[in-house]
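Input.
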Amino acid sequence: MHGFSTTLKRAMSGSGRDDPRQPPLIVATRTDGLGGRLLAMANAKTLADRLGYRFGFTWNSRKITDQESHTVDLVQNIFSAEFIARHWLGEKIRSADFDILGNTAFAPSDLEAMASRGGRRGWICNEFNALDFFRDGGSSPLQRSETLRGFGFASAVWRALDAAATCRLPGPMAALHLRSGDIVHGSNRRRLIFADKVIPSTLAKAIVSELSSKGLTTLLVGQDRAMLDYLQARTGALRTDDFGAGEFKDEALGAFFEMALMARCRQIHAGTSIYAVVASVMGDMPCVGPGALFGKSRAADIILEELRTNEADYHPLEAAFGYQWTFLALEGETSPTRARELLNKAQALDPENDGYDLKMAAAHFRDGDYAAGEAILKSRMLSQARLRRKIPLPIMDIMTNLMGGWLVMERDFEFFFAAARAGHPYAMACSAYVLLEALGDQASAVEMADRLVTMEPGNPIFRRIRRRVGMGRKPRSGGLAKAKWRLGRLRWG
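Output.
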């Protein structure tokens, strides 16, 4: 792999500038899963090719061991030596050398004007919808499919793609992607903001039945083999293993095989998981959610009926996610009483999920029952404080930790503030930290924390909160800007 070695040496040499006579770069630098990286690369290269610019990307050349559920192999195992030598910029680049393309409209003339001013190497293009903001007059729209299919993949990846391309299908098929992983079984199930990425397994039987009525055989794609086996036995749907996915022991190669097999289906039904979106780009077809077959309210009814009759058939966390998905689908449209019923059922199956505690407390606060909501917060915070001295406690971190520019409890802040104004100390503790970290109002946060310590001078949690808010807001990444306009309308007092 001489090309890879040469590029690695160049990338590690630290030369941060390009020949000024060269066209600028459009680069993809995502560090999440395989699908996210590939989609960002397809966007960046499509745009670079249209504009006559250069394309570059970053990727790890050493094994990643600290990600919960991402399928990310080494760069030399995914791409050919030639592709690496031409486009790979190393594991990291200096982001300060680049402007950002993302959530505002731009035209070729804008980029030309920016490039002519010099001082930057080009643009980072990591937003999945970045091409939606490209304006190019009457030119044909940008097409990512051909770009993605034209990547210089490693020979082992091509073998996986070719194997999927030559599988004999039994007839017209639709793919049903049932992601689970970190969102259903891992830590992100606590965040309650990723549910739209996943079609619940508790909805799968109804989807397979509906697709069958349209003359389509369903291809089940997912991470939980036991669940796929169960659904196949109950519905007659096919699994990717029935076409040879199990022959790929390497996780990344299996992922490429499955994405390419999905791309051959006439429809792809999935949440907003980028894994499924990449398959739709490969096949140049749309990826649709459960709304394509059922509205949210109907889907919620189907899930609740399935859980009423067959809850024991599902892993407790799969069943809990069914209730979580239903709660989030109906949130804002259902009563606090029904919201608590759904949350109670989810929490009974997943008692360690403090995201449910927060939403339960919010439902009580919304209903004016401050004492009940306060009791939930007190119980969880005291329990967590016995295991963790540092502020924020995990339950507080959920309230203020931005994920993808979103805050799970954003719509509930006003109810916590109302309970705090009513003098409930644990609601005040949470609100003080929200005032600091989400709203940037340190003065109000310190004032509230001072009141807490005055009310209960012997409470170590409140004393630690007072010290923490006095230190000021922790450093933020660029993700805060995405939520700033929404949070700006919230005010304390």
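Residues 34-51 form the longest helix (18 residues).
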